[in-house]
TrEMBL record:
It comes from Kibdelosporangium aridum. Gene3D superfamilies: P-loop containing nucleotide triphosphate hydrolases, Tetratricopeptide repeat domain, Winged helix-like DNA-binding domain superfamily/Winged helix DNA-binding domain. It holds the Pfam family GerE. Keywords: ATP-binding, Nucleotide-binding. The keyword Acyltransferase does not apply. CDD domains: LuxR_C_like (cd06170). This is Regulatory protein, luxR family.
Length: 911
């Protein structure tokens, strides 16, 4: 760590004390805080600060395994002051290599003389230069060392000496507390509580560790698990990185599906000393609390620890446990959640099982029975619970979890139940358990496990309806994973299994997945066939789901130029499906409407639909359904000129997408991010996002969008050959106007295709390409498409520059204001070049170079001197990521692209 994080209050108090000591007023500073909170780090910073002010530093550390060694930390701290003495001295009783003064025959007097010799040693050193003496972890110090520290604290009052010690209040002995009371009463003590970091402090620390500002989901996880304890923040962050649960995507940190993770070994070791200091009885109660977790009520603990004096043990464990009230009853929790996880991690499976079995028995006797809690403990009790009973409980737990869409819980119970059912020969339960396993895997984004479970369920199923349903769900999981060929094969198998059986509902679901599959593969004949089949089923059965899906299919067909569908029809379909409580289909219907509105440039409609889709996903407790709507909204915000909002939404979609492994949503979010970056001049980063998107998920429709953005990037690099190769030349297009504009930039005649689209956005762009700049710009502006409107104005300025320079200057100036506001670097540069050619002086971007913010000016100056981002961060007490952010803003404001250009700019500004 390059800088101390979140300790401004403590540092202010320390600076004040150092001033007093430098003026000859000795002080004792007590840094109090629990394990891992950052006391030692703060103390070492204090020593560094004191050294820079001319203090001599001394340091000793008390250790748990040396608590029976008298004066050990004091000897360690004072040894650097010892010099050979010609005459015997009382200090010889502590330090080797010195002659010892004769014994006085009075132990008390000898002790007094020893303490006075120590005080004189420190005072003499302080006469030469101020002294700061640190003793770390005095809660472990032996009584004799505490007596010396107390004596030195009192004796230092009129010297340039600062005594500093750190301790844990929860582990402070009576002797430590007595010393504090005495020093406090004498007015010598300055107490500095070292509290857990605030969420802002956690964010700053994680940014230091990762070298980048972490997104909200990362901070929420780390803040919740660490509770602001600095050591835990560090160790959890490193453990997530090393375990692969925290990784980079699009240059940002994201969490994978299994980010909760195990407790780092270092955290377990930190708690071990405290836990090992307990007697066997109290340790057993602490273990029971860690095992029982949110079931650790007095009656459950009483059953688990039936042979223990529970009230007495709970009293003795008051520094380890807190009482909480949940649902009207007292619940016992550890003072820090990681303490419970660390205690649990220390237990072997064979040691845990009896605790879980006893907890399960206690929970089973309660009314009503908490199914989830009971299944949790039964699953972990292993052979300590009768197998048939365990299987029944675990199956009920899996069913309950699936009903609540609690994916991780459902996986835990279904896996355990499935293993047990196979061992007991309960083949009758296996198909249903496989179904619950697959459902739970889908909820948590474990697509591979879902695919495997649905396949096993299909193989085991004997009933044709059930086998067809499993094959259908298998195809759905494969479609989500981008395995489109396999998905189509399994849909065909599902239809074959049904044959002539009466299965209207199932046939509708098969047609629904087939419709999604064929649209992603852009297979028009197959889409037409599925829509016809749904209309046939709807006409025969009147089933609202079939009718709604047929409308959805017709809406998809409008992208191929086949027919029309009104927005009201989509709303009607959604209302019908909402009544059927099919959240996934409701969101799917919203998505197709969102895609259509996005392609038409109707970003307000996109935002409305996105809000409805996300609301439905949250109501159904299916956060993975938020990913695609959020990514679509990012694209709409890009169109609307809200580019910062677009980046924020893309980041949110990325975070959610990786958390639930929604591959298509991840790629769409990367596409949105690439579009903003490309238009802001970050071509290389945009191409990196596109490469990641293509590698992550690429069906034919999404691939066309990625290709057209890649073609734009190639044009930005003036590589027309690559752009021509990449730009799709046939529809349908996800964003048709965008595709046709790129082709127009390559010289293709696309006016007829724009005219055929028939909506206002396409008509405005067609007018723009025909040279009707004023009308087109006004139309684009009225549609809320500021970047397109400004680009149209700039084209107008270029066309009339030779014949009507005043009009050209006015149009280019208006366009430049929009481009600067959006940080559209390339377009800003084009507008400026035109204005300068016309003899106009373009307005400086955002603010003149001399009017950078004070912090930006500092960063720019240091970078121009050749310092790295890390070096600038250290000098200005910032995180490296904050420096990078400042630098990006400086580049955009000054129209620069590199550190070299910035250095030249600063040099020219100073001459």
């Amino acid at each position: 760590m390059a800088a101390l994080i979140g300790r401004e209050r403590e540092m202010a108090a320390i600076n004040e004390v150092l001033d007093e000591v430098a003026d000859g007023v000795g002080r004792v500073v007590a840094l109090a805080g629990e394990a891992g909170v950052g006391k030692s780090r703060l103390a070492m910073t204090l020593l560094d600060m004191a050294a820079r002010r001319g203090f001599r530093g001394l340091r000793g550390t008390a250790c748990a395994y040396q608590s029976d060694l008298s004066y050990a930390p004091v000897v360690e701290a004072l040894r650097p002051l010892i010099r050979a003495a010609a005459e015997p001295t009382d200090l010889g009783r502590l330090f080797g290599g010195m002659s010892t003064a004769p014994a006085l025959g009075d132990a008390g007097l000898e002790r007094t003389r020893l303490f006075e010799a120590i005080a004189s040693l420190v005072a003499d050193a302080a006469e030469q230069q101020p002294v700061v003496m640190l003793v770390d972890d005095v809660h472990w110090a032996d009584p004799s060392s505490l007596d010396v520290l107390h004596y030195l604290g009192r004796a230092a009052a009129h010297t340039k000496c600062l005594i500093v010690f750190t301790y844990r209040p929860s582990e402070a002995s009576a002797a430590v507390r007595a010393m504090l009371v005495s020093l406090r009463r004498g007015g010598w003590l300055v107490e500095v509580p070292v509290l857990p970091l605030s969420p802002v402090g956690v964010a700053a620390m994680v940014a230091e560790l990762l070298g980048d500002s972490p997104p909200t989901p990362v901070l929420e996880l780390l803040t919740d698990k660490s509770r602001g304890v600095a050591l835990f923040v560090k160790e959890l962050t490193l453990a997530l990185r090393e375990g692969g649960q925290l990784f980079r995507s699009a240059g940002r940190w994201v969490l994978g599906p299994d980010a909760a993770g195990a407790v780092p070994t270092s955290v377990v070791e930190l708690f071990e000393e405290r836990v090992d200091s307990l007697d066997a009885t109290d340790r057993a109660v602490l273990e029971a609390v860690s095992v029982c977790a949110d079931a650790a009520t007095a009656d459950v603990l009483g059953a688990v620890c039936s042979a223990i004096d529970l009230p007495g043990s709970l009293t003795r464990l008051r520094t380890f446990l807190i009482e909480d009230v949940a649902d009207g009853e007292v619940l016992y929790r550890t003072v820090h959640p990681l303490l419970a996880e660390a205690v649990y991690a220390r237990l072997t499976p064979s040691a845990r099982q009896p605790y879980h079995a006893a907890a399960a028995d206690a929970i089973a006797r309660r009314s009503p029975v908490a199914v989830s809690r009971l299944a949790h403990h039964v699953g972990l009790a292993g052979t300590a619970i009768e197998p048939a009973r365990a299987l029944e409980t675990l199956a009920a737990g899996a069913e309950h979890a699936v009903a609540r869409r609690a994916g991780d819980e459902g996986l835990q119970h279904a896996r355990a139940a499935l293993k047990l059912a196979k061992r007991l020969g309960r083949v009758d339960l296996v198909p249903q358990l496989l179904t619950w396993l697959a459902e739970s895997a889908s909820f948590t984004g474990r697509t591979d496990e879902a695919v495997a479970a649905w396949w096993d369920a299909a193989v085991d199923a004997t009933d044709p309806h059930e086998r067809a349903r499993c094959l259908m769900r298998l195809a759905q999981a494969e479609t989500d994973a981008g395995q489109l060929v396999e998905a189509q094969d399994h849909l065909i198998q599902a239809a074959d299994v049904l044959g002539d059986l009466d299965a209207t509902e199932l046939r509708i679901e098969i047609a629904q997945i087939a419709l999604v599959l064929h649209t992603r593969r852009d297979e028009l004949p197959a889409v037409l066939a599925e829509v016809a089949e749904l209309e046939r089923i709807g006409a025969c059965s009147g089933h609202p789901k079939a009718l709604a899906l047929a409308r959805y299919g017709r809406l998809e067909l409008t992208r191929y130029g086949v027919g029309t569908v009104e927005e009201s029809e989509v709303d009607e379909s959604i209302a019908e499906i909402t009544a059927l409580a099919d959240a996934e289909l409701v969101v799917t219907l919203h998505l197709i409407s969102i895609g259509t509105a996005l392609g038409r440039g109707e970003h307000a409609a996109v935002v409305r639909r996105v809000a409805l889709a996300i609301e439905r996903a949250r109501t159904a407790n299916l956060p993975m359904l938020e990913v695609l709507p959020t990514a679509f909204c990012a694209l709409a915000q890009f169109q609307a000129g809200a580019w910062d909002s677009a980046l924020a939404l893309a980041d949110r979609a990325l975070a959610l997408g990786h958390r639930f492994n929604v591959s298509r949503g991840i790629s769409l979010a990367l596409a949105a991010r690439a579009m903003v970056l490309l238009h802001r001049g970050d071509v290389a980063e945009a191409e990196s996002c596109l490469a990641e998107a293509s590698a992550n998920y690429r069906d034919r429709r999404l691939g066309r969008l990625l290709d057209v953005i890649a073609a734009q990037a190639a044009l930005a690099r003036d590589d027309r050959a690559t752009a021509a190769r990449l730009a799709p030349t046939t529809g349908p297009y996800a964003m048709p106007v965008l595709h046709l504009q790129v082709r127009a930039d390559l010289g293709d005649d696309v006016l007829d295709e724009l005219d055929k689209l028939g909506f206002p956005y396409a008509a405005a762009v067609a007018g723009w390409r025909r040279g009707l700049f004023t009308q087109a710009a006004d139309a684009l502006d009225s549609l809320g498409l500021p970047f397109d409107a400004a680009a149209c104005q700039l084209d107008r300025a270029n066309v009339v520059a030779a014949t009507d320079p005043d009009t050209a200057i006015a149009a280019a100036t208006r366009a430049l204001a929009v481009f600067d506001d959006l940080d559209a670097v390339a377009k800003s540069a084009q507008a400026r070049r035109l204005l300068r050619r016309l003899g106009a002086r373009p307005k400086p971007k955002d603010r003149p170079a001399g009017q950078l913010s004070a912090r930006e000016a500092e960063v720019a100056s240091l970078v121009a001197q050749g310092l790295s981002n890390a070096a600038v961060a250290k000098q200005l007490f910032l995180s490296p990521r904050t420096v990078t952010t400042h630098l990006e803003k400086i580049y955009r404001r000054l129209g620069l692209k590199s550190r070299q250009e910035l250095a030249r700019y600063i040099r020219s500004s100073n001459t």
